Amino acid sequence: MAGLELLYSTVVSNITCPQDVVVCFVHWEIVRSGHKCLGSGDQPQQNDKKSELLPPGWNDSKELYTLRYQSKNDKSHLLLKAITADSTLIFYIMESATERVSDLTVNVSDYVDADNLQEFDRVFKNTEELAKKVQSGLLLPDSSVKGESSKKAEKRPSNDPPPDRDPLLIPPRNPYTSRQPRWPDPLAPFAAGGADLDPLSGRPGGMLMDPLRSGFPRSGFDPSAGIPGRLPPGAVPPGARFDPFLEPRGETTRRRLPTVA
């Protein structure tokens, strides 16, 4: 990792235990994320200044490490604490503005060779795995960067597709639930079946089929006008459902009486 070796060379004379090595590594990951160290301890000091290096006295206490950081744009302040518990280090980071807290537990022996503390090329183990743990489990996302990205999303025109959207994909079918369909209210609580009980009422929805009121185009045939040679005029009452005569070839046509509903 670029820069870690230079940082380690500046503090190697002060490193006396494996916990110091892990704290140095976590410090460099915080610096890489866009922050610089202000100093050690909980409270700000008059001689605080931004630096990528570890401040004097950063490892005076082997039981509790405390470091303060500030982002490059001065919008984020972090407080880092590392507590030694047997063979592990428990890290806590709190962002002062939002008071968000994250934590990470590191087993020191998994990442540090205690027999080679003074040799940079041999002291670290599994650095890529440790870096992923620090970045995903300990470092907090920068709220200022998040706010800028949300503003950019608001400024993007609504007709532009999202950056991760494939225009060739068929959009998902989501149910339309903004409003309910308009169902006609019943005429009365006991109006069910009224179209069947009174077919001449003109109510739709009955079980009886009326070809004159089915909604299909009508041919203009009026059965009440009579059929020459078969039915005299007036034989079919007006509005009656009438079964027309059929005369298949080679068969004798039977007269069917009109039915009155």
Output mean pLDDT.
76
* Lateral arrangement of strands in the main beta sheet: 1-2-3-4-5
Helix content class: 10-25%
Alpha-carbon distance between the two ends: 94 Å
* Binned strand content: 5-15%
| Total E-strand runs | 5
Please trace the helix and strand order, writing H or E for each element: HHEEEEEHHHH
What summary fits the major beta sheet?
5 strands, antiparallel
The low-confidence runs, each spanning 5 or more residues with pLDDT under 50, are: 143-150, 251-255
Radius of gyration, rounded? 43 Å
Discrete helix count: 6
Which key phrases capture this entry?
261 residues; alpha+beta; 5-stranded antiparallel β-sheet; 5 strands
Task: Compose a concise summary of this entry.
With 261 residues, the protein is an alpha+beta fold. The chain is built from 6 helices and 5 strands.
Would you mind describing this structure in some detail?
It is built from six helices and five strands, in the order ααβββββαααα. It is α+β, with helices and mostly antiparallel strands and 261 residues long. Strands 1-2-3-4-5 form a five-stranded antiparallel sheet, with helices on one face. 15% of the residues are buried. Residues 143-150 and 251-255 have low confidence and may be disordered.
